[in-house]
Specification:
Elements (H helix, E strand, L loop, with lengths): L1 H6 L2 H23 L4 H16 L6 H12 L5
Helix pairs in contact: 3-4
């Protein structure tokens, strides 16, 4: 990273700063191989339902859509 700073390119300097700020978290991923991708996917699915359900007046239908997305439909 010291060689990169000598180049004087602002984009590479920003990248090196970001890399040094997040280095421990990046290294932890490669040690444990875990991520929050599943949680982010779940959250995105719920947000998509909320976007489509804007103005929905029937809470029961909204609840069924959410449970259908999650996979635990019990009427």
């Amino acid at each position: 990273m010291s060689d990169v700073s000598e180049l004087g390119m602002s984009a590479l300097e920003k990248f090196c700063k970001t890399l040094s700020n997040w280095m421990d978290k990046i290294a932890n991923y490669f040690q444990s191989r875990s991520s929050n991708g599943q949680t982010e996917g779940f959250n995105h699915g719920l947000r998509a339902i909320l976007w489509r359900a804007y103005g929905m007046l029937n809470f029961r239908n909204f609840r069924l859509r959410v449970l259908d997305r999650v996979g635990n439909v019990k009427v």
